[in-house]
Amino acid sequence: MAAPGGTRRGPLLLLLLLLLAGFVHGASSLFVVKNGNGTACIMADFSAAFLMNYDTKSGSKNVTFDLPSKAEVLNSSTCGKENTSDPVLKIAFGKGHTLTLNFTRNATRYSVHLLSFEYNLSDTDIFPNASTRDIKTVESITDIKADIDKKYRCVSSNQIHMNNVTIILHDTTIQAYLSSNNFSKEETRCRQDIPSPTTAPPGPKPTSPSPSPVPESPSVHKYNVSGTNGTCLLANMGLQLNITYEKKDNTIATRIFNINPNKTTINGSCNSHVVTLELRSENVTLLVFSFGMNASSSRFFLQGIQLNTMLPDAREPTFKAGNDSLRALQATIGNSYKCNAEENVQVTKAFSVNIFKVWVQAFKFEGDKFGSVEECQLDENNMLIPIAVGGALAGLVLIVLIAYLIGRKRSHAGYQTI
Question: 88 Cβ partners below 8 Å, 6+ apart?
């Protein structure tokens, strides 16, 4: 004889499992841009998380939020005009925040060549106690690209770093220059979804050029810079450079290569307000990381990256790029910054640096060792997922146990002696 109420356990269990699935990340949203005839030219289906740092009257503060389900496509989005302008998708949410995807194409591929985010610091729901009420804009080139008439598909998370803002796209499907009113059945997968290539057996050389394979993760190396007063910089990290340039045949190429610490010369300098790490290797003429400090908030940060290298197949063989207004890898002076997740620092539109398993400290040390660790926001968010899943599973077990005990009690109640 079944215990009374036993038939309710199945729907309850299903509901709890559905709730459990929601802990992974926010639900995706579909955004569509149509032309004057009502035909779709851009479709984008993704969810997004924003990790930000902003200034308050009592110091800097980190904030994390998701792209809400109520986000809408702005009327200023456009399908563009052939040979005149390119498609643009503008997504608005909250109190004056806009995420913009600018597309471009060549004969064979299209891409989100620029992603920009405009945010309003007067939105107290997201930025409580902000020191200003300004509207800020950050932007970055992206590696979102696909073949013409194919959709871009990326199940893995795609991190786009823009100074003090990191945007993480989840489960992304994007297509522009649509030839129909729906996503193409064919797709171009992102590099994050593709496993590391294995060595292929010798064979005939291809008759047409193919893109260079993405190298494996770089070796992590410990870099040390010392001055007259001792150590001023310790950095454990693997470095990977991304350079976009115009080749001699007028095509656009992207070169991705790792810094090999075994073939790298390390130098640097220690000053009271700036610490530099200088690297020279077989692929790089000079790569400089500059760390600065904010005396009022007692924090250090990566403020500048400079690169000087040679690209033999480029229209301009000497490649130079730099940015001295970065705000990455921040921590309190005397502490260290650590991040197991891969961090992408966008230096210029044509140059970015992927930093792997970084652990860094600048200026102040005790005993030439790393100080107390300040975990990056990406690692903290990744830790929340197993905690939430574990909590949900524990709650699920408890509810099922309670339901079982209640059902058993009701079953025994039917056989009590009168």
Answer: 33, 76, 77, 78, 80, 100, 101, 102, 103
Summary mean pLDDT of the chain: 83
Phi and psi, residue 302, nearest 5°:
-75, 110
Q: Is the pLDDT of residue 18 over 70?
A: no
Q: Give residue-wise pLDDT tens across range 165-204.
A: 888 888 999 999 998 889 999 999 998 787 644 444 454 4
One DSSP character per residue, 80-136 reads -BTTTB--EEEEEETTTEEEEEEEEE-SSEEEEEEEEEEEETT-TTTSTTBS---EE
Helix, strand, or coil here: 51?
Answer: strand
Render pLDDT for 287-330 as a digit per residue (tens, 0 to 9). 999 999 988 888 999 999 999 998 888 888 889 999 988 889 99
Burial (CB < 10 A; 0-12, 13-18, 19+), residue 233, is buried
Q: Count Cα atoms within 13 angstroms, Cβ side, for 231.
A: 18
Q: What is the DSSP letter of 137?
A: E
Torsion over CA: 391, 394, 400, 404 (sign):
negative
- Render pLDDT for 60-100 as a digit per residue (tens, 0 to 9): 788 889 999 899 999 999 999 877 789 999 999 999 999 99
Structure tokens at 78: 């456009």
At position 100, the amino acid (one-letter code) is: T
- Picking from 345, 330, 270, 337, the residue whose alpha carbon sits closest to that of residue 300 is 330
Choose among 300, 306, 304, 279: nearest CA to 362.
300
- Structure letter (DSSP) for residue 329: E
CA proximity to 225, closest of 164, 268, 271: 268
Q: Is 195 within 8 Å of 214 (Cβ atoms)?
A: no
Site of tokens 């870099």 = 223
**Contact present, 280 and 346 (Cβ < 8 Å):** no
